[in-house]
UniProtKB/TrEMBL annotation:
Name of this chain's protein: histidine kinase
Reaction(s) the record says it catalyses: ATP + protein L-histidine = ADP + protein N-phospho-L-histidine
Organism lineage: Bacteria, Pseudomonadati, Pseudomonadota, Alphaproteobacteria, Hyphomicrobiales
Limits of the GAF domain: 27-172, 201-345, 485-634
EC number annotated for this UniProt entry: 2.7.13.3
Domain of life: Bacteria
Keyword hit for Transferase: yes
Keyword Glycoprotein among record annotations: no
Residues in Signal transduction histidine kinase HWE region domain copies: 639-718
Amino acid sequence: MPIATPSAVSDPARLAALDAYAILDTPPEAGFDDIVHLACRLCDVPVALVSFVAADRQWFKARAGFPDCETNLGSSVCAHALTHPDRVLVIPDLTADPRTAGNPLVTGEPFIRFYAGAPLVSPEGHVLGSLCVIDHRPRPDGLSETQTEDLVLLARQVMAQLALRRAVLARDFLQMEELRAFTVREALRDTQTALADADGDLDGVLRAVVDGAMRAVPAAEGCVVELIDGDHLEYRAVAGSLEPHRGLRVPLGGSLAGQCATSRTPLRMADAYTDPYVRRDLVKRLGLRSAVVAPILRGDVALGVLKLQSSRVDAFTDSDLVQVGMFASAATTGLGAAGTRRQMRAQDAYWRSLFDRLVEGFVVGEIVRDAGGRAVDWRYVEVNPAWGNLVGIEAAAAVGRTVREVLPGIEEAWITDFAQVVETGEPATFTRPVGVLRRWYDGRAFRLEGDRFGVIFMEATGRVQAEGRRNALLALGDELRDLNSIPHMTRIAAEIVGRALDATRAGFGRIVGDVEHIDIEPDWTAPGTASIAGRHRFEDYGDIRGHLRRGEPLVIDDVATDPRTRDGAAAWEAVGIRSLVNMPVRERGRTVAVFIVHDMHPRVWAPEELVFLRNVADRVEAGVARVRAEENQSVLNRELAHRLKNTLTVVQSIASQTLRGVTERDRVETFERRVLALSRAHDVLLERNWSTARLRAVTENVLAMQADLGRFALEGPDMEVGPQAALSLSLLLHELATNALKYGALSAESGRVRISWRTEDAREPVLILGWVESGGPPVTPPGGRGGFGSRLIRMGLLGTRDARLGFEPEGLRAEFRAPLADVQGQVH
């Protein structure tokens, strides 16, 4: 059955007296601990307690031999001592006393049996509790007279300790109040000085107020002046934990600050989780748990509020609320001084409207420096709506935040270049990308006051990308013109396309079968992207074969959502593909290859990008066709050359057989050697695919048939000569060498021939070929018109008939001239 407690337990006057000592739930103190140990010794008991009886429990300030620091009132024996303020309550056997027989501490652990309690009486006569001693066995004789007197004396010492403790707390409180008052006075004085120095500058006024309020109220972790702007409050000046939230806007309705402003009444909020006016969506973001807020008034008109906040519950007192009111009044004074300046700003409304109507983006920024003064970031002070449209971010969301916060990973040049504008005062014009946005911008930055600067800019992404694609096509044309290897050609094209389109992979693949597989050649990849060179089966990647069969581009903006690929999206993403273009390369009406471009992110492929890829594919297709045509032509040339050589051999054989009976064998041999000279020239041209030959190689091949090459000295720069010039040169040198063997220098063992060539710039550049014999017998001009060989020599190179012959006693000297362009086979 419930155990009744004395009515004195709930006496309001007694409870108020207990609260005045502020003793409940305080930590142990040596003075009280010593008293319970002394009580145990004097009364010869195992347990002693300094017990205070509250409205709902008994709590032990000190205890010896007892495990718990408090019990409920149903387990309290000390509650019965409250009715005996003038004597010690002694119960020899707790099991026999009706007041305690059912007490849980008697019927159960720790099975107490004896109790004696001396009341703890306040100077006003209220019994706060008792100093009690307890035994685990009945004591019929109770305490001796001396023990009883000792227990009473110790109870008085408990009250003396309480009185001393309260006096010390009161003294400390007065000292703290004096210190706090001094701190507030100093903060107010410094704030007033700062207001005077601000000279009406609104930001300076508000900064002075929040700094002063933070000093005056140490419990505050953050401070803000919120000014009314239409139906919102704007965080205009911030300090402490609210520093990152400069520029934040909250509605007047439904917020603590709004309630303070509209009611024009100071408010103290103990707990944001239970306060009816707090916006729940801002509590965690602002680190708000308790606050004091006072209105900033001009007459009866609220201009805003001053708010101090903490992340702790009930961190502020009514005294703190008074201090906030004082600083709110100081803000009113400062705002009055700033009124004139605001009027001047009102006159600039037209310019602000113009700022907002600009189609160009406009930013006012302020450099953020580290402790050493180095620029490490910059903050958005103002932005116009066009800025938001150009970067795809709500303009209001950027104000008060830094560029690194708004655009994480932005290029360092966006900070260092603007810092240089501020440092030097020199404007700067730029065209620069924002990589995280994948956009380019043209702009001009210029210095404002202090660490502030302005930037006006327009997006240039389309122009820059168009220039990049145009330059890429030009570069591709230059590369393809000089390449003769199809794999090299496709690798170069892939790299140019990948970089021009800012893709993550580009490559070239050959179709296998009826668009069943694709063999991707070594591809170009962006850093961090793996190659997918090798064979792949189309069916593993979705329904994508039909487009390529029809020769249509396959364009996928997102493999995860496109109905053709979403069922196989995992296969695409496994190789780092979220969007792609496959541009087919056709040959005789069928798709034979595909030019591929991949991106690891979803991407909308612009029409001009697809046109660019079509142009690239066409150029690659043309380049591949050129290489294959050249390869085919080379095979054809070799086949024709082989047949021509066979024909010359047959001619020589037929001539030998036909002229076998001719008695003038020297003429027959001359004919055969001339055919052989043509054959040797043909061999040199064959090595160069019958296009051009090297002059030195032609000369050496012809002369080697006549004599040891050691008897010839060749001088002149090696050069290309056309097919016709090679044949003409072969016949000319053959005739000259033949005559030298018969009549000139080569007919003597010591004879030598120097053959030289050079070019000469005239009205038309010419090639000059020289032939000088020495060491042979004296030579004489041929009589009459001479034979075919003589006529061939006088015709000169390429039939120009520009041949100058000198029959000197020491040997023949000849010089032949021909237009250089004709020699090299150039087309006029």
